[in-house]
Amino acid sequence: MKTLSIYIGIIGMLLLAVLPAKAASEAEFRKLSKTYTLRADGSQEVRVQKELTLFTHAAMNSLYGETFIVYDPDFQKLEIHESYTRQKDGTVIKTPANALVEVLPSTAANAPAYNRLKEMVVVHTGLELGATIVLDYSIVSKAGYLPALDVCCPVKELSPIKEYTFQLNMPADKTIHYELLNASAQPATAQKDGMKSFTWTLKDVQPRPYAYPSARGSMGQVQMAASGMMPVFIASTWANYDEALRSLKAQFQAGDPAVVNAKLAELTQGIKDNPQAVRNAIASYMTEMYRLGRCGVSLQEAGYRLRPASEVIRSAYGTQAELVNLDVALQQAAGLEAEVAVCALHPLQAADQGLSTIVSLVAQSKMMPEKVALTGTDEAGLQSFMTVTDLEGKSLKLADYLGAKKSQQTDTLKVDETKMQQPAEGWGIVTLSDPTPVRTLYTYAANTTIPENILLPNTVDCTLETVVCLPEGMKMAPRADKELSNACGKVAFSYQPTKDGVKVTRTLKIDCQLQTPSNYKELYALLAEWKDANNHTLVVKKVSE
Q1: DSSP states of 447-509 as a string?
Q2: What highest taxon heads this organism's lineage (predicted)?
Q3: 234-261: b or e for each residue (b if 16 or more CB lie within 10 Å)?
Q4: Domain check: are 179 and 252 in the same one?
Q5: The whole model's pTM is what?
Q6: Is residue 476, in this structure, part of any structural domain at all?
Q7: What is the pLDDT of residues 386-442, one digit of tens each?
Q8: Distance CA 282, CA 275 (A)
Q9: What is the CATH number of the domain that holds 372?
Q10: 225 part of a folded domain
């Protein structure tokens, strides 16, 4: 017995030694460097260099086993300077040719106009615990492909970074605007051979939370930057943001008017004299998935280029920007007032903003469509943390219906006794569903505390009324209503017996979008109460005759 206790004690000490290290990080970037260069001939180069040491099997097998590089071979050239794995004992395993696999990016699937895009999958070989992945590659863009040197580069990764280097290079006679959001580091400057450079070096960069979407996506990027927890490098050679937007505006074309007008006539047959009905018909066309496919290619991956609205109609799919262009084009062809709203990351200095800071585009309409969610409105829910302008730089306020709004749902649930869970004779259990708008917040409240700010994707004001019709001869076991209120919002559950069963009213309000370590406990309390399955479960019993 004494020996067993000793073994248990030793195992406990080993777990205490090992678990914190594993919890701290799956891997560590020894070095991560990103260099953006504008050459004298107008071509551009983005160079990425990384050294990444793996600590866990998850890092080795899934998280970092591959690197994905998207580029456009018509205008860009991918150069892999070095790719190898340095194993724990120092053995170097060079990446073989058959581990460099070129595929179609998943975002361009079912989108022939973007099938020219390529994604290089670098499969890292020779991996083991303690091994270090070394990768050094460049993407060189032809002169004229990109309208300016325009960078919005988030700093944090899923694993900590011991040393992060960010560098800008350009001809000495070029003017560049730049800033580092949410950090105070200043660049070292140098000038040589007609080129000038700005170099920032950050030490011991902490990882971003898993709860956020990938930093590659603009939504996750703006959430972390706006919450003050995500350092982001912004730089551009545009004279100002208005000039950048005017360049983008030139891409928003209706195209062939005959095609646009034909589609409009098809959608508005019999309702042309009713502007609200016309707007609703266009909105329905834009939001019905089986009519128009959604292409995930970003504005940046498309080289800030759009196909005209008529081509989107012909092909029946489009990128987010193309679908917004189509929506606005159809509304304008119908004589309705509509414009493109540009939602972008908010820098400290307006002149530092470029096209790469754009988070979302929204079709801003003077007429509210009924019961539809428009393209880009999820991101538009963050508008209080962003700049919102038209395509000429004029400040806009998005219509109220584009932001978070109160939702109320009423439905009826008829309980089938034969399909009901019955834990004991004469008793049954009825479980009510949990709505998707609330479930999206669960990943943001996975822990009891947070080390730094987080920004929720939206606020919530959700009420669900469910009329539960119980089988004849059954009624709900008595239970009390419940309510919890705090500075973040409110959660409430009401159970009112009815003639045929019970009416359950469930309410959740989350009013605070920016969560800090000090107020987060209130959000956690609300969501913990909402997630308690007992609140969504009814115990019913047969009535004694």
Answers
A1: SS--SS-EE-S--EEEEEEEEEEPPTTEEEPP---EEEEETTEEEEEEEEE-SSEEEEEEEEE
A2: Bacteria
A3: bbbbbebbbebbebbeebbebbeeebbe
A4: no
A5: 0.80
A6: yes
A7: 888 999 999 988 775 554 456 778 888 898 888 888 888 889 999 998 765 677 788
A8: 11
A9: 3.10.620.30
A10: no
